[in-house]
Amino acid sequence: MNGWLLAAALVLAVGLGSTLWGVSTGPLARRVTAQNLSTALVCPGLLLLAQGYGRPSYVDLALLLALLGPVGTLVFARLLAEDLAGERPRGRAATWAAAATGAVVVAVLCAVTGPGRAMVKLLVVGALLVGGNLVASRALSGGFPGVGRG
To answer: In tens digits, what is the pLDDT along the chain, a chain of 150 residues?
Structure first.
C-alpha cells in the first residue's frame, strides 16, 4: 500500500462515513446536504485511487461524478423545494471543508502529474467539483437572490 492509497482510504472512510450517517439520520435538510457532500468527497478519493493504482480511467469516472453529482443535487433542490422551504439545509462548514479537500487533492495531483493533458483534465475535474458543489449547496440553502423558482 502506498501513500496515495492510504490518503484515498482516509478520504473515503471519513467522507463516506459521515455522509452515510447524515443520509440515514436526521431531517430532510440534513439528508439532502449529505447527499451533496458525498459527491464532493468521493471525487477526490477517486482521483487519489487513480494515482495510487496508476489507472487514468478513474479520473474519467471522477470527471463524470463531478459533472453529474451537483446536477443531481440541483434536481433534488427543485423537486423538494416545498419540503425544504421550512427548514433550509445548513452545512456551510462541511461544504467548505469538502471544497477545500477537493482543491488540495487536485493541486497536489497537478503538481505530481506535471504539465500535459492529464493536468488539464485534473483542473477541469477540480473546477467542476468545487464550483458545482458550491453552487448546489447555495441552491439548497435558499437559492440565489433575485432568481425566481421558475
So the answer is: 799 999 999 999 988 888 888 888 878 888 888 888 888 899 999 999 999 999 988 999 999 999 999 998 888 888 888 887 777 777 788 888 889 999 999 999 999 998 999 999 999 999 999 999 888 888 887 665 555 554
- Which of 91, 71, 90 lies closest to 136, judged by CA? 71
Q: For residues 64 and 50, what is the distance between their CA atoms, to the nearest angstrom?
A: 14
CA distances from 110 to 18, 73, 95, 137 (A): 27, 27, 22, 26
Residue 73 near residue 140, CB atoms below 8 Å: yes
Residues, the chain: 150
Long-range pairs of 103-106 with CB within 8 A, sequence gap ≥ 24: 103/130, 105/7, 105/11, 105/44, 105/47, 105/48, 106/44, 106/47
